[in-house]
Amino acid sequence: MDFTTVDIDQTDCRLLGELSADGRMSDVALGERVNLSSTATARRRKILEERGLIAGYTASLDLDRLGYGIMVLVSIELNSQAEQALIEFEEAVMQCPSMSFCSFVSGDTDFVMMVHVRSFNDYDRVYRSELSRLPYVAKIRSSFIMRQVARRGVPPVVFER
């Protein structure tokens, strides 16, 4: 993984901050927020996209209203950390339709994932039909999210320059 930091100026930083809060903002509205003309704003936005600082645009969906209000943080420990086991697990987890996030982590757990379900019975189904069928799984620990305190796409520290 390349951890190269890209230099951006204060205006680009402000543009990124505004776009991280509302990616649908027009260039006119964005320009007003950062004191640029809409033409200059459009040019800078295009440069930020081309440099890969803006990886894409998404809609933030209300999963409660869509019927998937229960979030489960799942910790998975594998019985092997051999490269082939990791590859096969990662390929299989991508086929889990209830999973929105999965990362390989350090510590006692090998992977952490976020699963979204309709009910506790639905989680039982997901556990049996998706999670327990993943290859090389030694242990699954589930933590139900009781209340979401904060959800940020980008931590504010990124924009402190």
From TrEMBL:
Record Gene3D superfamilies: 3.30.70.920, Winged helix-like DNA-binding domain superfamily/Winged helix DNA-binding domain
Q: Which UniProt keywords apply?
A: DNA-binding, Transcription, Transcription regulation
Question: Would the keyword Transcription regulation turn up in this protein's UniProt record?
Answer: yes
Provide the HTH asnC-type domain boundaries.
8-69
Q: Which GO terms describe its molecular function?
A: sequence-specific DNA binding
GO terms in the biological process aspect are: response to amino acid
Superkingdom is Bacteria
Q: Name one GO cellular component term.
A: cytosol
User: Entry's Pfam families?
Assistant: AsnC_trans_reg (PF01037), HTH_AsnC-type (PF13404)
InterPro entries hit by this protein: AsnC-type_HTH_dom (IPR000485), Dimeric_a/b-barrel (IPR011008), Tscrpt_reg_AsnC-like (IPR019888), Tscrpt_reg_AsnC/Lrp_C (IPR019887), WH-like_DNA-bd_sf (IPR036388), WH_DNA-bd_sf (IPR036390)
Question: Does the keyword field hold Disulfide bond?
Answer: no
The protein in question is named: DNA-binding Lrp family transcriptional regulator
